[in-house]
């Protein structure tokens, strides 16, 4: 089974790299799939850490992290995004002996109401836009250290009278060291296509290949996370001419080729840390270099690219909050609530 799974991962990766390497921002649809509507993941830079615990929110994004501790758990997430955009996710997990752990979820984004006008700027009415992704996931332990998982994600989008239907698949694998301090994961998200396009021309959906590493210190309640993202594409900046001289827009100085290579490498990495103060209280912090380079204003850098958050348990409820710094104009706040219904059962 391991050989079959490994071959499937290799085939999937190779079959997509040829058509994706030239893609840059703005060339894909359903980009809301790249937003993670969860306080913990948002506080850790927007990408799922390789952590095995009871948090269903991790398993909804990376199905290889699904486990029996998430059984009969429900989670609700709400993101107050920029410009009045509302975004959220609801999920539920259930474990079955010998079959693994299953999850079901709904991820949505509402773009709000817009003014509709014609080519002469005459207002003719209003329109709305929204997108939805249904998530059916499965994860299972192969042995004491390896686990695998997959998500099936039908996607529906409706914007200003145009609609689209698509399908996506996530495949994942994870390794957990026996000492329970080190873990690694592989995740290929959004492998799929449009089934019904907006105007008759099918467009790609945002494939993202990630590798996550996590290390918890032995004598300090601190866990570090490193995630390498968008591994299907080396260059994450916009494509320009091969012969064009690269100039820094702020200093007007020519950018040396070596600097450009290093820049592209660093854009793939997100670092984060969790301070495990107590069993019921965690503090989180992260730095996303790619986000900072895309959104920062050089004259006033601020906190662009950073995020922080907190998670704590009150009675039988796990609450989470995080804030991401995008730009000087503003950031985003996200709230999460999880509950495991097994905890309401009276002990015999």
Tell me the major beta sheet.
Answer: 14 strands, antiparallel, barrel
The total domain count is 1
In sequence order, what are the helices and strands, one letter per element?
HHHEEEEEEEEEHEEHEEE
The overall pLDDT, averaged over residues, is 87
Q: Largest sheet, order of strands side by side?
A: 1-2-3-4-5-6-7-8-9-10-11-12-13-14
By DSSP (H or I, 4+ residues per run), the number of helices equals 5
- How far apart lie the N and C ends? 40 Å
Low-confidence stretches: 1-24
Structural class: mainly beta
Shape: globular
Rg computed from alpha carbons, rounded to a whole number of angstroms: 21 Å
Question: What kind of oligomer do you see?
Answer: single chain
Question: In percent, how helical is the residue content?
Answer: 10-25%
Strand content: over 45%
- The total strand number stands at 14
In short:
By secondary structure, the protein is mainly beta. It is 14% helix and 47% strand. It has one domain.
Fold and architecture overview:
- This protein is mainly beta.
- It has one domain (2-114, 127-276).
- It is built from 5 helices and 14 strands.
- It has helices at 2-20, 39-43, 56-61, 257-266, 289-295, and strands at 73-80, 86-96, 100-117, 123-141, 146-159, 162-176, 182-196, 208-216, 222-228, 269-278, 281-288, 306-314, 317-327, 330-340.
- The protein has a 14-stranded antiparallel barrel.
- A hairpin with a 2-residue loop joins strand 10 and strand 11 (281-288).
């Amino acid at each position: 089974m391991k050989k079959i799974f490994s071959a499937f991962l290799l085939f999937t990766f190779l079959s997509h790299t040829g058509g994706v390497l030239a893609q840059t921002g703005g060339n894909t649809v359903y980009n809301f799939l790249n937003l993670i509507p969860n306080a913990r993941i948002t506080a850790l830079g927007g990408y799922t850490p390789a952590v095995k615990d009871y948090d269903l929110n991790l398993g909804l994004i990376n199905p290889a992290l699904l486990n029996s501790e998430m059984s009969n758990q429900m989670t609700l997430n709400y993101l107050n995004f920029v410009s009045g955009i509302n975004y959220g996710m609801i999920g539920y997990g259930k474990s079955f002996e010998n079959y693994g752990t299953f999850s079901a979820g709904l991820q949505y984004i509402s773009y709000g109401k817009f003014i509709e006008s014609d080519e002469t700027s005459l207002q003719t009415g209003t329109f709305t836009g929204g997108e939805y992704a249904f998530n059916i996931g499965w994860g299972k332990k192969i042995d004491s250290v390896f686990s695998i998982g997959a998500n099936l994600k039908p996607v529906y989008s409706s914007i200003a009278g145009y609609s689209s239907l698509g399908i996506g698949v996530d495949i994942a694998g994870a390794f957990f060291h026996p000492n329970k301090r080190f873990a690694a994961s592989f995740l290929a998200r959004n492998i799929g296509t449009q089934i019904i396009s907006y105007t008759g021309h099918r467009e790609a959906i945002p494939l993202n290949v990630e590798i996550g590493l996590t290390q918890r210190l032995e004598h300090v309640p601190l866990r570090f996370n490193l995630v390498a993202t968008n591994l299907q594409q080396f260059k994450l900046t916009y494509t320009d001419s091969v012969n064009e001289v690269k100039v820094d827009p702020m200093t007007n100085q020519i950018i040396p080729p070596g600097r450009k290579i290093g820049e592209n490498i660093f854009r793939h990495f997100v670092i984060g840390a969790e301070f495990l103060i107590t069993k019921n209280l965690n503090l989180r912090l992260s730095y996303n270099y790619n986000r900072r380079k895309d959104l920062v204003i050089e004259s006033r850098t601020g906190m662009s690219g950073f995020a922080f958050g907190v998670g704590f348990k009150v009675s039988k409820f796990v609450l989470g909050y995080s804030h991401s710094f995008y730009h000087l104009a503003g950031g985003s706040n996200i709230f999460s609530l999880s509950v495991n219904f097994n905890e309401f059962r009276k002990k015999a």
